[in-house]
Batch of 4 targets.
Target 1
Amino acid sequence: MTDAALLLRALQFASVKHRDQRRKDMNASPYINHPIAVAAALADEGRVTDDSLLVAAALHDTVEDTETTFDELEGQFGAEIADLVRELTDDKTLEKQRRKELQIERARSASPRAKQLKIADKICNIRDIADRPPSNWPVQRRREYLEWAKQVVDGCRGVNQDLDAAFDAALERASHLIEG
């Protein structure tokens, strides 16, 4: 299978898994837009050409947010991609605040590939919060998200200067828009 075919298969897989999910913005955008944006940020802004990393980007929320298992991912896409997704997946059995703390803690020890994926994920989330914020998030909650995302990304910096710069630009833009 070609690398392009594998990426398309991953996008199709993710679109089926996320088919009934929506983002929290006022328009309830289809959730699949997010993993597509993350993969695009890696490729376009991060200049990432690592096909396994791009496939993992397309799949990065499937285990965390759907009924997908790591065994299923491994069977469909191989251990390398399943392991990358595993590095990004929060344990939903934990309380939300603990999951957020663990993201900060784990960022420093993540693999270089997982760090890049994490930065791209935060870039896309910050852009969404700036341009299409969750309808029920007041300004203070958006500010808190930006502060937390910066703490996570600070533990990931240094593996891809282009992604670091894109994150900084997204953060600065979002901060200005939120402060209005």
Target 2
Amino acid sequence: MTRPVAHAGTRETWLSSNRRAFAAALLLPVLLAAGSGGLLLAVDPLPWRIAAGVVGVLSLLVIIPLALLAQQPRLAYHDWHLLVYLGAARPFRLPVDVVEVFFLGQAPSMVSPEGDPFDDQGPTTSTIVVRLAEKADEWQKRDVRPMLGHWCEGYITLRGTWCEPITEDLVRTLNHRLVEVKREQKSLGLGEAS
């Protein structure tokens, strides 16, 4: 499906988050928060109420950032910039000129059946890899949330665990949109379209 080129001022989502995965990740903290709220109302001894309050607050400290991440797309386009959402408070705004191509890849899912989220020997997931122009020295590396992706040596890897389903059609659509945006940019005499 071809999406229209976004008008100035509007953000166009190119890659959505996987809300089902975030919902699963939120299940335990939400249950803990609800249980601690119930204990606060049901128990009388002060130490139990304090413990329930602490569990509730800690649960909220997990729920809020995960809920915010679930609402963000992973990739979006706005005013000649690719917006990359990999866990920072704000998206990274790459000039579309420096984005060369999107392609499929594979990487550790960072979700282990044994519960170790940093087990790189566990299951793998499909990824979308964004190759950036070598000339864009300032965009070669960024610190991002490892569970969401990796950004090093001019390649941005977005883990499929936390994205909408990654397919060959999706990658073709991303590349098609990139070409459309660069053509429009070139026709308007803006930037270096390639």
Target 3
Amino acid sequence: MMMRCFGLLMIGLFAAEAHAHHVLGRPAYSLNEDSNTPSSMTMETQIGDYFVHYMVFPAFPKPGEPGRINLYASHMDTGQAPPGKVLFEARDAGWFADDAEFLGRQALDDAVYHQGFQFTQAGDYIITASFEDNGEPYIIDFPLRVGALSGTGPIGITLGLIALALVAVNLLQRRRLLKAKIRGAHEETDT
């Protein structure tokens, strides 16, 4: 009985020391910093003669930290990627947005167009990926949020102003009613 317990203990110790070299069916040597990180956005769409699929990494881009866009594009009939390079630009999604900022022009790499980015300020941005095929332009715009959500956006400010206006109107109406009651009471006592 003692040998059996000792044997089970040894098996347990050796099993605890074993390290897996596969995660989700992938060998460990093919993992990198983005392998287990979900994308913040994944979208598939059709634009003209192309099916387009893009993903943004990491899941929650932060200001000052690098991120990456993966763009997959294939022709509906041939399944081929667009000829040439894809141009990536970014612009602020705010109301008074400046001109687009050039991010890069990327060639096809293993059926994917990879574009890195790093924004210094938190906010909402529009990423534009564009390419040409047979003289026809293809432009894909998609939103990107960098950093945490702001507690007060345009909708929050509008709702706050409406609530403030309702409170002000309510107070003014109460004041008018109170003045009318006081006048009515004075008129009754005078007669």
Target 4
Amino acid sequence: MQRICVYCGSSPGERPVYAEAARALAGELASRGVDAVYGGSCKGIMGVLADALLAAGGKVYGVMPHSLVRKEVGHAGLTELHMTETMHERKGLMADMADGFIAMPGGFGTLEEIIEILTWGQLGFHDKPCGLLNVDGYFDRLLAYLRHAEQEGFVKSAHLEMLMVESEPAALLDRFTGYVPPAVAKWRD
């Protein structure tokens, strides 16, 4: 793996544990020689991740629509900052640039991005690993919902297993290394 796309909040959240996790992920990526692709902001968890990876000698590629530069404040010190016209272009470029996807704590955008990229994998549009860095149980309620969707017949077990969940960056990245996408059709026969 050369690049991991990291979805995370442009807000710092309420607890320091989120920034600590971003620094830990950045350190683990740097130690493995893996670069990051992310939303391009210098704010919140996004900025912490980028700053920590850059400080550790890694490369960070930001992708941001022109319309968000003023709202999120694009990071001026990145390896590269790619500008797009739309959010759809942003997500497509981030997906194309990455060899895998990790969601850290964040809000609506983070949730939407990891669910969309997981859906793309389910549909066979990519065969890249997807994971949640479950910092201090942040995603526990989301995981309960996804298990409920599985029990109700809306998500196949093999597709739910596509989403790897770990609380430590090293464990999640180790699982990414051996990822094999499921050989199961999306639709029931």
